Amino acid sequence: MTGQRIHITNAGIGYTATLHVGSHQDPANVILDTGSSTLAVRHSAYKPRHDAAIKATDLAQDIIYRTGGWVGPVITTTLALGGIGLPRGIMAIALDEEPHSFGPADGILGLAYDQLNGCYDLSAYLKRHGAAATYPWPFPARDSMSTVKHLAKLFSAMPKKTLTPFFTQLVDAEKAANKFAFYTRRSVPRATKRAENAGFFILGGGEEQHDLYQGKFLDVEVVHDKHYNTTLKAVQVGHAPPARAHSLPAQFKKLISNSIIDSGTDCLALATDVFKAITSSLDPKLAAIAKRALNSRKGVANAEVDLARWPDITFILEGERGRDVPLVCAPKTYWQLDAGEPGRALFRINPFGQVLSILGLPLLNNYYTVFDRSAHKTGVIRFAKMKP
Questions:
Q1: What is the mean pLDDT of the chain?
Q2: Are residues 233 and 119 in the same domain?
Q3: 112 and 162 share a domain?
Q4: Domain range spanning residue 221?
Q5: Which are the contacts of 152, defined by CB distance < 8 A and separation ≥ 6?
Q6: pLDDT of 66
Q7: Could you tell me whether strands 84-94 and 335-336 are parallel, antiparallel, or unpaired per DSSP bridges?
Q8: 288: exposed, middle or buried (Cβ count in 10 Å: 0-12, 13-18, 19+)
């Protein structure tokens, strides 16, 4: 089965694609996020009152991310991405949210597995309050994080269920093969050379897009089907000896592994030991520039960043049968020139302050990346050099 190539754009909070919603096919630009599983669209982008295909449910979702959160009713309606659609797809309407939770996007399309797509059964609550469904929304909407947290507390006492994510629904309906791929070049939108902000998402395919990559694929094992969990074995700065990454401590077993691959994170958010291994291996002058960039919201001037002086950073992940898979992150991807405004550069290697490393867009920007969920029980992530 050949995948459907879809144009995507870096919106400053990840890459977005156009999802068409409802009987009128309202367009919504949604973030394509491998770090979550829920499909949610802002009420401002979708007009449910005019949707002849909408079907209300007694379910609701309350999702809190690292950078925000939202809450709203679960409905089913007609959904289509890249011309591939479902007559009865599952979606949430994001009614209450922390302001700017989706940035300039209209919502989010999670591409991870079922476990991250939880919802609450409000049937008993609705019956007590004389309502039949969660749409129309029976709660006041205030668009604040306090509202999101208040409703999360209220819902926590209610039965929880798991919903089938949109991509899995497409696979189950045999509308797409169980894989997808990304071709991206930036983690932060470029204020100049804006063509670099564009990319491709391959829905239901990957390896057949020969014009997007060259050479052989390197396969990284997905060790669990919650997030795209991977095992980070070591990190290497330039030609320095590799530094081993700490294994996941026993008290953090619920995280499953010490790293994940996340298209919805615009930086490398690294565990404390991995971040220290990188910064301590840099030339002191370079380390000082990186520190100043991290301490300033606008980074440093482009002129201070001579990319030729900066080393490649290699993340060594575990492949099949435990073998080492080295993935190289080039200076032009972990530094983002003209980021946000012309002449300013952002350093996209950040301390996460925990034991988990989130390997986001600065790593993916170096490779044509295929998330092949059909391989083995939990899948593999395949990396090949991108063609210009």
A1: 94
A2: no
A3: yes
A4: 208-386
A5: 62, 64, 69, 71
A6: 67
A7: unpaired
A8: exposed
